[in-house]
Design goal:
This protein is 48% helix and 0% strand. It is an all-alpha fold. It has a domain of 43 residues.
Length: 64
């Protein structure tokens, strides 16, 4: 599954929010230097893993 984020700022906000929630230090400029735009879902996973988050894909099921 691949997809581009709609906006670089949105992607950095998402990663920064996760870091804030779990009290992990975060610097948006550092992430922007480590991972060049355009960000994909795979890029977000990699950036989160660098910050010691466990990430992966989980299929959604129809709750019908």
């Amino acid at each position: 599954m691949q997809g581009n984020c709609t906006d670089t700022g949105d992607c950095l906000w998402l990663l920064g929010s996760l870091c804030s929630l779990y009290r992990v230090p975060f610097d948006a400029a550092l992430v922007a230097n480590q991972f060049s735009p355009s960000y994909t879902l795979a890029t977000l996973h990699e950036a989160a893993r660098v910050r010691c988050f466990k990430t992966g894909f989980s299929p959604l099921t129809d709750a019908g």
